[in-house]
Amino acid sequence: MTRSIRHTAWAVFVLFGLLFVNLNWLQVIQADDLARDERNRRQLLAEYEIQRGSITAGSGTQQRTIARSQDTQDQLRFQRVYSDGPTYAHVTGFHSFIYARTQLEQRYNEFLQGSSPDALFRNLADALQGRERQGDTVVTSIVPAVQEAAVQALGGQTGAIVAIDPRTGAVLAMVSSPTYDPNELSSHDGTAIREAWERLEADPANPRLNRATSELYAPGSTFKVVTAAALLERGGSPEDTFDDPPFLDLPQTTAQIGNFSSGRSCAGGTITLRRALEVSCNTTFGLIGLDIGADALVETAQSFGLNTDIEFDVPTATSRIPTELDPPQTAQSAIGQRDVRVSPLQMAMIAGAIGNGGVMMRPRLVTEVQDYAGRVLRDYPAEPQSIPSRDGSQAVSPGTAATLTDMMVGVVNNGTGTNAAIGGVQVAGKTGTAEQGEGQSPDVWFIGFAPAEAPRVAVAVVVEEGGNGGESGTGGGIAAPIARTVMAAALGI
C-alpha cells in the first residue's frame, strides 16, 4: 500500500514538474512568438484597441498627416486611414489585420503602437490614471509639395523618383509607380481586403513594389560620373583627351560598344573627358574603363556605396558591381551596363555626395518620433554615411567633387541634359539610357542636383522601358524634364 502511494506521489510530482516547465516555456520562451502570431485573436483585438500614432509629412504650417487611426466603435475599434494613400503608399506602407504591416508601419510599429521602451513610464502613468494608451507620431522628412510634384511629373509611367537634401540625407520625395491604395488593405472588411490583395498580387506591374529602394536597374550612362571620378581621383583632368571611335572592339571577344545615336553623337577622332561626359560617349568611357582598370573602377564604385547595405527606414536592395571584372566586363561596366545594378536611392545618394563636396550623408526618411503631447521621444539627426571601403564618409576628394560638379553643369548647359535646366539656377546632372534585353526598350535615367554651387536637392529619376517615349525614349528626353520639375519644387520655384 505504502509503495503504491509512493509511486502515485512520484507520478504526481513528475506531472507537476512537466506542467511547471510547460508554463515557463509558454510564458518566457515562446511568449514573444505567440504574441506576434497572426492567429492570436486576443493579441489582434488588443492591438486594435490602441489609437495608433500618426505618420506625418512636412513641417510647420505645411505639415500633413498622411496616416492616422480612426475610431470605428466596431469589434476592431481603430481603423487605419491614409490621406491621399496612393501618393504616399510606398512611404507609409499599410497596416492590415490580415496581411500585417509594411514600410514605415512595420519599421516603427513599436512607436506607432505606443509599446516602445521610450514610452514605458508614460504608459505606466497613463494606466495608473485610467487613461487609454496612445501611439506615438512618426515625423518624416517628406515634403508634400515635392512628393506631389514628383507624382505628377512621372505621370503614371513605370519608374521611381528619389529626391534628397544632400546636406543632411533627408528624403524630400520617394515615389514609385505604379502605386496602390493602402486604404484597401487596411479596412475591417476581410473579404474586401483579400480581393484587393489578390488583385495586386495578380498585377504584372507589381504596384506594391517600392521601385525607389527595392528594385535594381542598370544605371546606363549615369554611371559615367563614377568612371570619371575614378579617373580624376588618379590624377586625370577634364581636359585630358581620349580616342573617340564610333565603335569600340572589346578585347578577347567579337563584341563591340557603340555610341547612342541622338543627334549629339560623338564625332570621332579625339575628345576631352569634359566633352565626352557632356555628350555621353560610350566608346570613350569604355576606353577609360580599360585604361584605369577593373580595380580602380570597382574601388571607386564601392566608395560611392555600391556593394554596401544601406541602413534606411524601409527595406532596400543593395546596389552592386562585381568585384572581379575581365577587360570586356570592365569596359561595359564603365558605361553602366553588364552586371552593374543600382537603386534610385543609391543614385540619388551618389549625386548628393558629388554636390556635397564628396561627403555622402546617410539617407533618412524619419526625422523624429513625438508622443501624443508633441514631446520628442526620439530624434534622428543628420549623420554621414559610413563607407567601409573608405573608412569614413568621403566618397571622393573635395577637389574631385568640385571638378565633377563643373562637368555635370556642362551636361545640362551644353550636352544631353538640357531639358533639366531651370531658369536662374545652375543645375548639375547626367543622363542615362540603359539597354535592356532583346525586344525591350531602354530604361532611362537622370541624376543631378541644384543649385550646383550649393545644392539643396539631389534627385534620381528612372523610367522603365523608355516611358512614354518607348524604344526612342532617352534620359535627356524623358527623365530630365521630370527631374527639373522635382528640383524646381524642392527649391520653391
From TrEMBL:
One of its GO terms (cellular component) is plasma membrane. GO terms for biological process: cell division; cell wall organization. Residues 159-487 form the Penicillin-binding protein transpeptidase domain. Pfam families: PBP_dimer_2 (PF21922), Transpeptidase (PF00905). One of its GO terms (molecular function) is penicillin binding. Keywords: Cell cycle, Cell division. Gene3D superfamilies: DD-peptidase/beta-lactamase superfamily, Penicillin-binding protein 2a (Domain 2). Residues 52-138 form the Penicillin binding protein A dimerisation domain. PANTHER family: PENICILLIN-BINDING PROTEIN 4B (PTHR30627:SF24), PEPTIDOGLYCAN D,D-TRANSPEPTIDASE (PTHR30627). This is Cell division protein FtsI.
